[in-house]
Amino acid sequence: MAEQRTSRILIYSTSSTGVSPFWREKYERDAKKYWDVFYKRHEDRFFKDRHYLDKEWGHYFSGAGRKVILEVGCGAGNTIFPLVATYPDIFVHACDFSPRAIDLVKIELLAHKDFTENRVSAFVCDLTVDDLSKHILPSSVDIITMNLSPEKMPLVLQNIRKVLKPNGYVLFRDYAIGDLAQERFSCKDQKISENFYVRGDGTRAFYFSDEFLTSLFKENGFDVEELGFCCKQVENRSREIVMNRRWLQAVFHFSDGLKPSYTESAIEFDLCQENVEPISSSKNSDQLCQSDNGAKELANDLEVDMSEGMAFEMFGVSHSSDEIIEVVDAGKWNFKIKVLSKEYQHICKSTGLMLWESARLMASVLAKNPTVVSGKRVLELGCGCGGICSMVSARSAADFVVATDGDAKALDMLTENVASNLEKPFLDKLITRRLEWGNKDHIEAIKELNDDDEGGFEVIIGTDVTYIAEAILPLFATAKDLISPNRDDDAKDTCKPALILCHILRRVDEPSILSAASKFGFRLVDNWPTTSSSQRSIISSWFSEKSFADCIPTTALSIMYFHRGVE
Question: How far is CA 514 from CA 274, 493, 511, 517, in A?
Answer without folding.
Answer: 66, 19, 5, 5
